[in-house]
Amino acid sequence: MLKLEGINKIFNEGTPDEKIALDNINLHLAPGDFVTIIGSNGAGKSTMMNMISGALNPDFGAVIIDGKEVTKLPEYKRSHLIGRVFQDPMAGTAPSMTIEENLAIAYSRNAKRGLRKGVNSKRRDFFRSSLEKLGLGLENRFNAKVGLLSGGERQALSLLMATFTKPAILLLDEHTAALDPSRAELITRLTKQLVEEGNLTTLMVTHNMQQAIDLGNRLIMMDKGQIILSIDEKKKQHLTIPDLMAEFENIRGEKMNSDRALLG
Amino acid sequence: MFTAMFGSVEQGIIYAIMALGVYLTFRVLDFPDLTVDGSFVTGAATAAMMIVLGYNPILATLTALVAGFIAGCMTGLLHTKGKINPLLSGILMMIALYSINLRIMGLSDEKAIVKPNIPLMNSDTIFSQFQSFWGNIGIDQALTNFIKNTLGFQTAPSTWGTILIVLILTLIIKGIVDWFLKTEVGLAIRATGDNKRMIRSFSANTDGLIVLGLGISNALVALSGALIAQYSKFADANMGIGMIVIGLASVIVGEAIFGTKTIFRTTLAVVAGAIIYRIIYAVALRIDWLDTSDMKLITAVIVILALVIPQVVEKRREKIRKDKRRIQRLEQQGELTQGGNHLA
């Protein structure tokens, strides 16, 4: 479903600030895979997500989604294949537009936008039934401006908007990190539910090791622009945080140096 | 007085089309587009030039609309493809249009390359054409009699046809803008002004949408310019100076008075704002010690007041609210201590 082949990226090449962001990344996701990604700050997790979404282009290497090479396609052209939820709850929705208008925008992702009405009664029914799944009562606030929603509600809406058109790939970039623990728990639960329902091929970046272990069928660990550890479905079922710490020490010969990774 | 006000309302309704264009860029796209000063004249110049050359006024007006659309798209391309700052893109297009407008007007005269103005005194316009149909119906007579005899005014407007046709036209355009902003493309344009990152992640080409939005906006501005030229029977290279500020004044005054709850209401507010602005303008002109040349200053003052007064009002309201709460709290405490004394 998703293939990354030999992706390389260097920021500020040729200057003293030169930084190797991605160093020969190879990754292959089968349809329905749900891969969680962990790693300390600057490991290249977000850069990799941006490569897949098209917000950044690799120096060389190929991105293949659903059998199509999309490496050179601009972000807006490949985003009909990709659903995305950002870390910032403000980033995934248009604040001055209503809930139903936001959903209509997400709904038009797959088709060419024309002069049809954005919200008609048929779509409204679909939006309503989709919102009911969130269980937040948003289906009764169709005409509320999204800017008035709380961070958790906005993130739940972003998640729904990213998933309900069944994208080929779902990218979740620390999408619970900016929320308080109870809201984060809610979004985690919704993520699980929506991904399972749609059988979506998913990549999720997280700083929370427990979350990375609880969710998904595969796990990868990144460090200094490389994928240093890849854990398959079988091994992941019995994985614990100390296991992960030990693996890291084993590979890098140093202690894992991230309180955030530990505490989540 | 009544007749002067009547003229202001007529003009205000025509300028409302320009204000709707400014609303599209300034509010919806969040793009401060200064092309307006140029594209307004482009519309006027194109329509006037074609009318002088003998084309049908309706065709001339529609061509003006297209000319404005192209001008707006150029500004959009400067910004999106040329990566030039929005304000600067508009300014560049505005001064480029100044020369282009002189050349467009020059097309009306075989002997000249450029012309600074085109008079339309004896030409057919949309308004004169409509008048020849409207004048025969007899509604004008009836209304004039009503105003002179029943309401007791000395003078009455010479015709009601003009205000009727501009009102219908403006309301149709308002309706189209309302409808457009609810279509899939319209929603995407609004989201572009609201959150570019989000709309890109939903497969919308923000560059294309910005170009389209600026095109539509300047098409409306040019249409307004074409109508004003036909209404006042001349086109002039300098008639667009300060137009963006007048557009902003209309948007801001309208929004401040009528609110922005829904799109329907906001566009209505913008139209009303344009008319109110013209009435203020007319009243200001009647003040003895003010000169016509002071109007730009007055426009600036109107915009400043429309921006500042709502803030002051809101601050005052807040202060009153807080004072009220403080007094309530004091009274409660007073009652408590009194109660306490009783017990003691």
TrEMBL record, chain A:
Boundaries of every ABC transporter domain copy: 2-249
One matching Pfam family: ABC_tran
Secretion signal span: none
Superkingdom of this protein's organism: Bacteria
Gene Ontology MF term list: ATP binding
Keywords carried by this UniProt record: ATP-binding, Cell membrane, Membrane, Nucleotide-binding, Transport
Subcellular location: Cell membrane
Main location: membrane
UniProt feature coiled coil, ranges: none
InterPro entries tied to this protein: AAA+_ATPase, ABC_transporter-like_ATP-bd, ABC_transporter-like_CS, ABC_transporter_ATP-bind, P-loop_NTPase
Protein name as catalogued: ABC transporter ATP-binding protein
Protein source organism: Ureibacillus galli
TrEMBL record, chain B:
InterPro entries the UniProt entry points to: ABC_transp_permease
Topology relative to the membrane: Multi-pass membrane protein
Main localization (coarse): membrane
Protein source organism: Ureibacillus galli
Protein name according to UniProt: ABC transporter permease
UniProt keywords, alphabetically: Cell membrane, Membrane, Transmembrane, Transmembrane helix
Transmembrane segments: 12-29, 49-72, 84-101, 160-181, 202-228, 240-259, 266-285, 297-313
Localization per Swiss-Prot or TrEMBL: Cell membrane
Residue runs in coiled coils: none
CDD domains: TM_PBP1_branched-chain-AA_like
